[in-house]
Amino acid sequence: PRNSPRYQRVIxxxxxxxxxxxxxxxxxxxxxxxxxxxxxxxxxxxxxxNLPMAEVRVRIGNQERTTVCIFGxxxxxxxxxxxxxxxxxxxxxxxxxxxxxxxLSP
Length: 106
Hints:
Elements: E1 13-14, E2 21-24, H1 25-30, E3 37-41, E4 49-60, E5 63-72, E6 79-80, H2 82-87, E7 90-93, E8 98-101
Parallel strand pairs: 1-6, 2-5
Antiparallel strand pairs: 3-4, 4-5, 7-8
């Protein structure tokens, strides 16, 4: 939660096509994160869905940021979205399949 010292280590992929971070709902609920709002999303192969979302604290290395997170299905793969990566000044280098620093601009 954004106002709590509780964290759960999660192995994620960095999503180049995902705007927001997605975590399995069970992981978020386990550490005490509750949905704060719902937003409509186009889900491939399905009708538009209102998905639960919340602001969460994310730690990458020794840095922490508050970012937007979607509550995924129980079996969904954890994904760091581009919104979260940008908050940390990172992007995916598709050639090396790694995270690299970016120059931030206002």
